[in-house]
Amino acid sequence: MKNHKALSRAGLIVVIAVSLFVCPLATGGYGLGYGLSRPAEARQIEFTPHVSTLEAEGTRQAATLATVGPGQSFEEGDPTRPKVMGIEDGDKQFGYGPLSGDPDLYAVWVTDSQGTHYLIVHKDSELLRGDVDSATGQRYQNGFDKYIRDREVIVSGLQSLNTSIRSHDESGKRFFNIGLPILAGAAVVCAVVTFGTCAPFIALGGAFMVPAFTNQESARALDDERLLEEGRLRVAEADVVSRFEGNSATGGPPQAP
Amino acid sequence: MNLDRSAMGRLMTVAVITVVWVSLSSSLFAFLVGGFLDGALSLLIAVAVVVAARSERVRTALATRPLNPWGTLAFAVVAISVIVFESGNLRFQSLTFMGELDPAALVRTIGAIGSILLSALLLWEVVRAYLQRG
Fold first, then answer.
1. Short-list A136, A157, A130, CA closest to A229
2. Domains in chain B: how many in total?
3. Shortest CA gap A11–chain B (Å)
């Protein structure tokens, strides 16, 4: 009996010692090699403009480029589609960039269920840069470029959120994976010794469960935030498509030209 | 009042399969999100659990010592922990990210479904073991 008491006391000491290590990690959301400031870092929106090159067939381009002008449109897979020098803003789904042969002309593109649609515009066109107020000569903030930038900010935020969700999920699973075998082992120990002896092992496994559940809770809270952001992204993409189709009803106030 | 040995055997088997399933699905998830250290750790845990369960020492202890029915309570704690934790990982609306299927979320969801089913089986075995106690 005395022996069991001593063993229980030793188990309790181990649980407290482990809790001292595990609980601060739980509140930080990360542990075992991760910096504690990572969640805060992940929440910040980092925006790096894409400068990747669009893929396009180049064989017939030289012949067709001479005939390309503002207002022309092309569909995805069209071999006559002019080559874009680089994506100035956006990505391969929604974006714009100057044409290789004529930097005064820009291609703007949007993607829907039918594929990606391209439109050629002048680099200073109202569609791309915003409508011009005829009285003041100032531009409205309703250009395609503005809507693309708005979308980019949301996309960037979504990617940060997703990284954060995955990190929390990974941390939660890590602690759960350590705690679960300890609990299962405790169950086997409980079957061959008294409950008093195996209880500290159950408590030890339980100690690892605390950060597991804390991290999971954080991940699910961020999941809700992500769903809201995805809703905002759909609205932003609808604005981009609307502007692409020539609508400018959602424009903001005029800005200095 | 003693725990039936065949019931204990079944409990052990289901518990080991549950722990290994949880570890392997976590390992795959970690590898998919780029956490190679976590992936390797989870894989190692799965292997260690199988090795420990098959060890002669554990088998001898379970075969020779009188079995305590309190053990079933601990197995129930294991099963309930898994069910509660994995329920939190079931998020069907998060299976896609920006309109595309997210493989990591898919693995997390399939892992959670499997873990919940295995834990339900473990709980059932706990009830059976309790009813069969000598």
1. A157
2. 1
3. 16
Q: Do A223 and B94 touch (CB under 8 A)?
A: yes
* Structure tokens that stand for A250 in this block: 């959602």
Q: Per the structure block, which two tokens stand in for A257?
A: 């030209």
How far is it, in rounded angstroms, from Cα A247 to Cα A40? Answer: 39
Residue in A170, A195, A204, A230 to test binding to B, most B beta-carbons within 10 Å: A170
Q: How far is CA A7 from CA A18, A131, B15, in A?
A: 16, 79, 25
Query: For residue range A125-168, what is the model confidence (pLDDT) as tens digits?
Result: 889 998 888 888 888 888 899 999 999 999 999 999 999 999 99
List the domain boundaries for chain A.
2-44+149-244
What domain range is B107 assigned to?
Answer: 5-132
Here the tokens at position B113 are 């479904």
Task: Give B51-61 pLDDT, tens digit per residue.
Answer: 998 888 888 87
Query: Which of A152, A177, A223, A227 to mutate: most B Cβ within 10 Å?
Result: A177
Q: Closest partner residue to A183 among B42, B61, B78, by Cβ?
A: B78
**Cα–Cα dist A16/A6, whole Å:** 15
pTM value is 0.72
A interface test, pick of B38, B41, B130 with most A CB neighbours within 10 Å = B38
Residue B62 and residue B116: Cα distance in Å, rounded? 27
State percent of chain B over pLDDT 70: 96
Whether residue B15 and residue A194 make contact (CB cut-off 8 A), yes or no, is no
- Which residues of A are less than 8 Å from B82 in CB distance? 180
B22·A177 Cβ contact <8 A: yes
In the sheet that holds A73-75, the strands lie side by side as A73-75, A115-122, A105-112, A95-98, A89-90
